[in-house]
Specification:
about 130 residues, about 25% helix, Nuclear Transport Factor 2, Chain: A, alpha+beta, globular
């Protein structure tokens, strides 16, 4: 795995992006710790790697079928030798469903180092309100 806060965060975020774009819920869940917390853009709180994986597979097969996303790391810093705080922007393109169209969000991630390397312990996805015209 890439070293340094930026490299670690970029690699994990890249794994999430690839898994989303391949509509692979299992792969999406793999970068998370077994007891991870995930708050989605609707404010729903998912607890645990298995729930995160299953929940994402469910949306890949339904409301976000055929969607794609792009993530861009905007910053990462070490809070301790085993904890990184990272932020990224996301653009979701959904062909149908409740968020049909293109939408932006900001991801806040808590990354932790354990026996199996770096994992995501927490992710909060915040939808960015459309600009008023």
């Amino acid at each position: 795995m890439a070293e340094g806060a930026q490299g670690v965060a970029a690699e994990l975020i890249g794994r999430l992006e690839r898994a989303w774009n391949e509509a692979d819920g299992q792969a999406f869940g793999q970068p998370f710790t077994p007891d991870a917390d995930f708050v989605d853009i609707r404010g729903e709180h998912h607890r645990g790697q298995e729930a995160i994986a299953a929940g994402h597979q469910a949306i890949f097969d339904s409301i976000y079928k055929g969607s794609s996303t792009d993530y861009e790391l905007t910053g990462a810093r070490e809070l301790s030798s085993d904890v990184i705080l990272a932020h990224a922007t996301a653009v979701l393109r959904a062909p149908s469903g409740p968020l049909a169209g293109e939408h932006s969000s900001v991801l806040s991630l808590a990354l932790v180092r354990g026996g199996n390397g770096w994992k995501i312990a927490g992710l909060h996805n915040t939808l960015v309100a459309p600009q008023q015209r």
